[in-house]
Design brief:
The chain is of the alpha/beta class. It is 38% helix and 22% strand. The strands form 2 sheets. Strands 1-2-3-4 form a 4-stranded mixed β-sheet. A 3-stranded mixed β-sheet has the order 5-6-7. Strand 2 and strand 3 form a beta hairpin.
Length: 141
């Protein structure tokens, strides 16, 4: 299964000229933990709820700050046609939990998360379990 089929296609985004207060409002209203910052439909940053919380200590007026003040620039991305195993490798290698997904032109098409990976692995293990049980009728878990 390619990466593009793992996570949601509807990604919460803001443009790079957004204010932090806009990001906070969207995090709350959309009930998400991260927002992808875009420029001409391409991901140029990512902001997590943790980024906002940590910024409280270092910024005098968080509400009027720019999203570029707290975003992680040049986020790690995966192409929508990358294999699903690329998600696990990228999470481990880059120490991230959320990865924007892009098309061949670099435009944002989705996002995959650690939660998506765990859910997909769980589904695949369920299929393997069903196969084992159907092939071994005397097997009792």
């Amino acid at each position: 299964m390619p990466v593009g089929e793992l996570g949601p296609e509807d990604v919460v985004t803001v443009e790079k000229d957004a204010k932090i207060s806009d990001v906070v409002d969207q995090l709350e209203s959309e009930n998400v933990g991260a927002i992808v910052v875009t420029d001409e439909e391409k991901p140029v940053g990512i902001v997590t709820d943790r980024d906002v919380a940590l910024a409280l200590n270092r910024m005098d007026d968080l509400a009027t700050g720019d999203v570029t003040d707290i975003m992680t620039e040049d986020p790690v991305t995966l192409r929508e046609d990358d294999p699903e195993l690329a998600v696990a490798r990228t999470i481990e290698d880059e120490n991230v939990r959320r990865i924007p997904v892009v098309d061949e032109d670099g435009k944002l098409t989705g996002i995959v998360t650690l939660d998506d990976l765990v859910a997909t692995v769980g589904e695949e293990l369920g299929k393997v379990s069903n196969t084992i049980e159907s092939q071994s009728p005397d097997y009792k878990p």
